[in-house]
Specification:
Layout (H helix, E strand, L loop, with lengths): L31 H14 L5 H16 L3 H8 L1 E5 L7 E5 L6 H7 L7 H6 L5 H17 L16
Antiparallel strand pairs: 1-2
Helix pairs in contact: 1-2, 2-3, 4-6
Length: 159
């Protein structure tokens, strides 16, 4: 006999059959690498440390989370945490050479056609869904940026 106060059993997780690569499967919720990487992103949003320290920590935790494959090492090499110029300084996750915000780059790609390589892997993906992926991912990245004082309450550029 089941008591009414007992919670219902958790539903079985939904598996995404379109994800054939093991490295793209979700990581365990409490994986130490994931926890450290998430904390390094939160530190950017909290402007918790100097930008050089935030950059080193971001790169290190990214590789601990995603593994030290050549493509991940290359990507880590190209990212940095940079401060925007006064009078409203803010920390942003950027491309190290150009200083462009990763979130803003992704948001500007919203509406671009789905790349052929993506369609090969996900043939049922439509343009509206691709736009949602680009838009939401850009907003997620932007959420980890420190907001300048005059931008509080505003969302980043959207189409």
């Amino acid at each position: 006999m089941v008591l009414e106060s007992e919670p219902a059993p958790a539903p079985d997780p939904v598996r995404d059959k379109a994800v054939p690569h093991p490295q793209r499967l979700p990581r365990p919720a409490r994986a130490p690498g994931r926890e450290s990487f998430c904390r390094s992103l939160t530190d950017i949003a909290e402007h918790a440390k100097p930008q050089d320290e935030l950059t080193v920590r971001l790169r290190t935790t990214l590789l601990a989370f995603a593994s030290e494959t050549p493509d991940n090492q290359e990507a880590a090499h190209h990212i940095a945490v940079l401060s925007t110029a006064p009078p409203q300084p803010a920390m942003r996750l950027c491309l190290s050479r150009s200083g462009l915000s990763l979130g803003q780059v992704l948001l500007s790609a919203d509406g671009c056609p789905v790349p052929g390589s993506v369609l090969e892997e996900f043939p049922d993906l439509n343009q509206d869904e691709w736009n949602a992926v680009m838009h939401v991912t850009g907003l997620v990245l932007s959420a980890f940026e420190t907001e300048p004082a005059n931008a509080a309450g505003r969302l980043p550029h959207s189409t």
